[in-house]
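Write out the 3D structure for:
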Amino acid sequence: MATTDGRIRAISVSSQKGEPKHNVPEAELRADFGIVGDAHAGSGLRQVSLLAMESIEELRVKGADISPGDFAENVTAEGLDLSALAVGDKLRIGDAAMLEVTQLGKRCHGRCRIYEKLGDCIMPRQGVFARVVTGGRIRVGDAINANSSGGIAKASGLDDGSSDSTPSHRQAALDDATRENVKSTRVAILTVSDSCAQGTREDASGPAIREILRAGGYEIGEERVVPDDRDAIARELIRFSDEGGCDLVFTTGGTGLGPRDVTPEATLSVCDRLVPGLGELMRAEGLKKTRNAVLSRGIAGLRGRTLIVNLPGSPRAVRECLEVILDILPHAIEMMHGGGHG
């Protein structure tokens, strides 16, 4: 079970972007801004950054001479399972301050000094970004509590209202070696829905995908919501593939027969090659539950070294389709990168 309580191990700030952050004993969080005096504060979605102390310790064991703040994170958290957080989760710090998770990981535009020094930077994979909902004074040693009624619970909730975090038989079949390999796989999730994009309906399918993939050992890099617009879908798929360097991109929604269901067409327009077997397998699995599964038009294809898979729009169908292909994905990724033919 994920740990939802921790504490602040360090607070780090810098007056200018690009310069090393330095540790401070306390700081002031300002609502919808960030840490007062920090160069990365502002009105955007990445007002405050967090990283787990445990991640830093893992690199120290490997011989890295690093300290809290070296990855430019504002808050180094200890004891809190940041990998279990979801976009939308709330983090209470101390007595009054509240953050809302807005992004998991990030895309680096260049190699930072940590990458140049160690040959790796964990912030793009393990960093968490948030906006300040409620301001307040925070101090080293303050408690951090993840609100389990937010994204964490939502991510594990099934479409029938139950809450079951038990991995399926296919997820359990992934051995330790495979789980270790998929940790380096970069994954993005794209929810396609007019109502979700307009904010009139909560996205339940994206979190369902996230839950299953995390249980399989994958780390989610980016999650986005776009309307049922062919050009908007295509732009995000291209960005995920070409700029984000994603290995896997999952879409959910827009695969039916409605006049605005254009996800397969958008996917087809950006792919170099199709992988028809994945769509066929998912439809075959769906037929075991309902004959209406034949009406799903989802496809799968390759854009360069990125595998794009269309999933249906309902959380239940997402779960059924994704679980049937989950054990195939590691081999597909290996083949994309030139291996796995033996």
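The CA atoms of residues 67 and 315 lie 41 Å apart.
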